[in-house]
Design goal:
The protein is an alpha/beta fold and 444 residues long. Helices cover 42% and strands 14% of the residues. It has helices spanning 12-16, 28-31, 56-66, 81-92, 107-112, 120-123, 132-139, 161-166, 175-188, 202-212, 232-247, 258-266, 278-285, 325-337, 339-349, 376-384, 396-413, 416-437; strands at 45-51, 70-76, 99-103, 148-160, 217-219, 225-227, 271-275, 293-297, 310-318, 441-443. Strand 1, helix 3 and strand 2 (70-76) form a beta-alpha-beta unit. Helix 11 (232-247) runs antiparallel to helix 18 and helix 17 runs antiparallel to helix 18. The chain is globular. The model is unreliable at 1-38 (pLDDT under 50).
């Protein structure tokens, strides 16, 4: 059931379709860097790297010490939609930075706005360093390479091992098992829930849909996009969670609030479907529960399958404005594949590397919050290798914003039917926005 993007359906021209209609600058010839020597470096080069990650300057310093002819200066930026908007504005002004930290779901938006260069002639060899699903996220199903994967957020199941043992609860291996465990937990702990369905972070829902095989955006060779957010796979996910919320065996409160933190800390939410970075959140959200949690693979839709979705993660791209694309691509590849760089990313930036060789070993010591699971990262690496490919489009933020509103109403109502309505609202808003922007678009 592992989702794949059909490579024959995509082209650089397809991704940029609609650019003229929305007044974007640049031409297709410029998108991947021109054919002259503008991307090459003939002398000392100074590169600027926009990144929101803490301590990225410390990692760049390692490179700078070894490569005095190519120095990288890190410029700290805001994350999320803020950096995307700022990059598009900078591109229109012709002064985008050389290097960019880009979330995977933002790649199509930046490609369609001619911000990211195709660096395949400089960095294609890096493909072997990453799981297939992750690599496909930076190629968008083309022969181009728009970035080098940096970190990843494979989905997993985190649970209170002590409470599961105390109440004889089964760690679910399928989503059917998950529903049974949710009912059993509610029966054993009437004032608690297995977990919550949150409407304030669409990234988790997107990752769950990804695992189920969803393809929210696809584009044909003629440049026509198809929006399928309400496809069968995503409907299955929405119906599943909506049914459990309506049944009353899954909580409906949003994540990252004081109430949610308290539920985790006091054991009234006894599990969390999250990503590999969850231990770092639990340290501050549920400090009294250290040593009581354990991680397992994400439940599957069919027994015997092994596939996960992702929640978060970013990459390093090179802008089409860079006069030193080759040097920039060289740094991007080093940053995300070199053993010393990977070790520094783990130590200084606290990320989970996308490169497979950085996902285990002595650098990644087991989370102190999980002292009972010394094989945490060995298990995580096996799960990460099963990450399904995603299918993002050029207006992800519209879909995400609509999710927050529509599913916010659905979770408050605790009605399964409204989960379906919310999904239809996401579909309609995303399709309408693409049409308004001038993209050739249809609905699945």
């Amino acid at each position: 059931m592992k989702m794949s993007i059909h490579r024959h359906q995509f082209s650089r021209r397809s991704i940029l379709a609609g650019a003229a209609a929305v007044g974007l600058t640049g031409t297709l010839a410029a998108c991947g860097g021109s054919d002259d020597d503008s991307g090459k470096s003939s002398g000392p080069v100074k590169l600027t790297y926009w990144s929101w990650a803490p301590n990225m300057d410390k990692v760049a310093a390692i490179w700078n010490k070894k490569n005095p002819d190519i120095t990288v200066t890190v410029s700290k930026q805001a994350a999320g939609k803020d950096i995307v908007s700022k990059l598009i504005t900078a591109k229109k002004a012709g002064n985008a930075p050389d290097l960019i930290q880009v979330e995977y779901q933002s790649l199509p938006t930046l490609v369609s706005n001619d911000v990211l260069a195709d660096i395949s002639k400089y960095a294609k060899s890096a493909k072997s360093e990453f799981a297939e699903g992750l690599w496909s996220m930076v190629t968008l199903g083309t022969d181009a390479v728009y970035a080098i994967p940096q970190d990843s957020g494979p989905l997993m199941f985190f649970y209170r091992e002590d409470l599961f043992k105390q109440h004889n609860l089964t760690v679910p291996t399928t989503w059917d098992d998950f529903a049974k465990t949710a009912r059993a937990a509610k029966k054993a702990l009437p004032n608690a829930y297995l977990t919550t369905f949150s409407s304030n972070d669409p990234g988790l829902f997107a990752g769950l849909a990804q695992q189920a095989g969803a393809k929210w955006w696809t584009v044909g060779s003629g440049g026509k996009w198809t929006v399928g957010i309400d496809d069968a796979a995503t409907k299955k996910v929405a119906d599943f969670w909506g049914g459990l919320v309506q049944e009353g065996v899954i909580d409906n409160q949003p994540m990252y609030t004081p109430a949610w933190n308290n539920a985790l800390n006091k054991g009234t939410n006894i599990a969390w479907v999250s990503a590999v970075w969850a231990p770092g959140v639990l340290v501050s959200s549920a400090p009294d529960t250290k040593g009581k949690w354990r991680m397992a693979p994400l439940p599957q839709w069919s027994a015997g399958e092994s596939v996960t979705g992702s929640w978060g993660g970013s990459s390093t791209g090179v802008s089409t404005d860079s006069k030193h694309a080759e040097a920039a691509a060289k740094f991007a590849a080093w940053l995300n594949t070199d053993p010393e760089a990977l070790a520094a990313l783990v130590k200084e930036v606290a990320i989970y590397p996308a490169a497979t060789k950085g996902q285990s070993g002595s650098v990644l010591t087991p989370p102190a919050f999980f002292p009972n699971q010394t094989d945490f990262y060995d298990t995580a690496a096996k799960i990460a290798a099963t990450t399904a490919a995603s299918a993002w489009g050029p207006n992800v933020q519209v879909a995400y914003d609509t999710f927050n509103d529509a599913f916010g109403n659905a979770t408050k109502a605790k009605k399964a039917a409204q989960f379906d309505t919310a999904l239809a609202t996401m579909q309609s808003a995303t399709f309408t926005d693409m049409k308004k922007q001038g993209f050739k678009v249809t609905e699945a």
